[in-house]
Amino acid sequence: MSDGEWYWSLTRKQVVRADQRDRADEVLGPYPTEEAARNWKDTAETRNDAWDEADKAWEGEDES
Fold it and tell me: Where in the sequence is the domain holding 28, given as residue range(s)?
């Protein structure tokens, strides 16, 4: 059985299945699994850190 799509509800502060999601502007997702939706913040922080490093490298501010 496939997990389907999962979302993080910003209003309920919990994981919800696609058929239970709130309005589009009140959810994050879709995510492929319940666990991925639950870990949305870690994923976002990791991506933001990578983008910040890429910006520094692009602007010639690479610290390495």
Answer: 6-58
pTM of the complete model: 0.72
Mean pLDDT score of the chain, rounded to an integer?
91
Residue 8 pairs in a beta bridge with: 15, 28
In a domain, 24, yes or no: yes
Residue 64 belongs to some domain of the structure: no
Bond preceding residue 30 cis, omega within 30 of 0: yes
Would you call 38 exposed, middle or buried from its count of C-beta atoms within 10 A (0-12, 13-18, 19+)? Answer: middle
Residue type, 53: E
